[in-house]
Amino acid sequence: MSDGLHDITICPMQEQDLPEVLAIEKVAYPRPWSRTHFLDELASPHAFPLAAFDHDGRLVGYICPMLLLDEGHIYNVAVHPDCRGRRIGELLVRRVLGDCQLGGAEIVTLEVRTSNAAARSLYRRIGFTETGLRNRYYENGEDAILMEYRFDNEDRA
């Protein structure tokens, strides 16, 4: 029985992907990023936004990371509501970790809403640790938990 992950293809996000990305963004977040924000990510020399496509070529998720010197950061990740629970988010995060490691990162960081138990659980399962709190970080006053993934010497060998 297939877990569906073999049917997922991850590749660099392109401008023509933005209508589907924005549709997911709109349902995933109370204050979604704009088209201009995604265009800025696509144009940034440090960002490498990725898109996940199913076997039918439908965009089912995306992630917006950056890598600057030896530090990676995940700014935004979302999966289409119809596709949640299929480990697509995990696949995207693990891909970013691999790309950051290949690029020489020692650490990858992110912020996650305190109320987002599913994401926090996913990140912990992958190996992120909670390292701090940003009070009232989000537009609704919700706190953000700071998380980081550190590559140890064995990871970098």
Automatic annotation (TrEMBL):
Pfam families named in the record: Acetyltransf_1
A GO CC term attached to the entry: ribosome
Which InterPro entries does the protein's record reference?
A: AcTrfase_RimI/Ard1, Acyl_CoA_acyltransferase, GNAT_dom, MshD_Acetyltransferase
Entry keyword set: Ribonucleoprotein, Ribosomal protein
KW Ribosomal protein (keyword) present: yes
Question: Domain of life here?
Answer: Bacteria
Question: Where is the N-acetyltransferase domain positioned along the sequence?
Answer: 8-152
- Keyword check for Amino-acid biosynthesis: no
- Record-linked PANTHER family: [RIBOSOMAL PROTEIN BS18]-ALANINE N-ACETYLTRANSFERASE, L-AMINO ACID N-ACETYLTRANSFERASE
Q: NCBIfam families, from UniProt? A: rimI
Put simply, this protein is called: Ribosomal protein S18-alanine N-acetyltransferase
Q: Which organism is it from?
A: Geomobilimonas luticola
> Lineage of this protein's species?
Bacteria, Pseudomonadati, Thermodesulfobacteriota, Desulfuromonadia, Geobacterales
Q: Which gene encodes it?
A: rimI
